[in-house]
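Recap slide: Alkylation response protein AidB-like acyl-CoA dehydrogenase, sequence and predicted structure.
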Amino acid sequence: MLNLPTPSGAELVARAADLGRALRGRAAWAERNGAPHAETVEAMTLAGVFRLCVPARFGGYEADAATVAAVAAELARADGAAAWAAAASWSAAWAGTMFPGQAQEDVFRGADVRMCGTLRPTAMAFETGDGIEINGRWGQIAGAAHSQWQLIAAMRVGADGRPTHVLALVRTSDLRLVDGWDAPGLRGCGGAGTVADHVFVPAHRVLPLRDALRGTAPRAPLVPFASVCAAGTAVGLARAAREAFSERVTYGRLADTDYESRAAAPMTHLQVADATMKIDEAEFHTRRLAGLVDGKAARSEPWSLAERARARAEAGEVCRLARQAADTLAAAGDETSIRDDEPLHRIARDLATMSLHSLTHPATGAELYGRTLCGLPPHTLYV
């Protein structure tokens, strides 16, 4: 049991903003090398980034959703891949708090624990002794290369032969890293595939998926909380795109025109206004989503299916708006801006990749929410 002072939400956001200066300088290196620099991971650890969603009794901060979203946004303003890895760790930690006390002791006894995870059950688990044995493979796990624990998903076959979808907490040292991160964006997140070969997991570190998806008041279900993490990251990337464009627009002529600067061109005015309005909308949805999570926690209210679906839809909408804003700003340049090391284009790649993630896909989230509004059952477990 640790009794350490817990920083305020404002202090945590300020720490993330200060950390951003260091992350920004190593973002291009991380993208080239497919993983965050060791100094980046160390700096994030020292700033308490990985404690954000760890229970206070283990020295964590138990930050509220508004703080988590704001910290994610500050990190993403500097390095979207680092923010995405942090978001993956927070989401896995949030799920970890729903496991029995012994499992939490195993995982959180070091408050700066780094985690990663997936909900995709691409492994099989069979009951053996006082636990399960897992065999399988998971692909494209953000943060796997530097994590200490992974939240894995598997289909458990019981004594009756019937499969059930479970989550389990596994040390990454018990897994084998394979492949890498071959997506066009978020390349510096330390993503990799992981493989379990006859890995034993004790029963106290196994949880039915439905328990994590439903949550237990006052703690929000897993998907709405993960949606907050993703939305904050997307907003931060969109802000970074606007800042990167603002730096470019103040110098240099617009190629092959008579305008003395990009800022003098009417098309620039239209593009900047359009992108800024979209970022404003994305910020609104992020605040509303975080407010929903925090409000229900404060009132210790259970979540309805419609609210859970709305949370996922709002995360998708944030990603859609942020991606459109970044694409608009990236398209407002000229041939001098088309370089691999151009931050604006890296940001656009990051948002394009985020928008295709299954839990933040705009069209999938909108369809899910619309089905619930029409009184139809969801077309997915992940809500």
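Residues 9-108 form a domain with the Butyryl-Coa Dehydrogenase, subunit A; domain 1 fold (CATH 1.10.540.10).
The beta strands are 115-117, 123-127, 131-141, 149-157, 163-171, 176-178, 192-202, 206-208.
(End of recap.)
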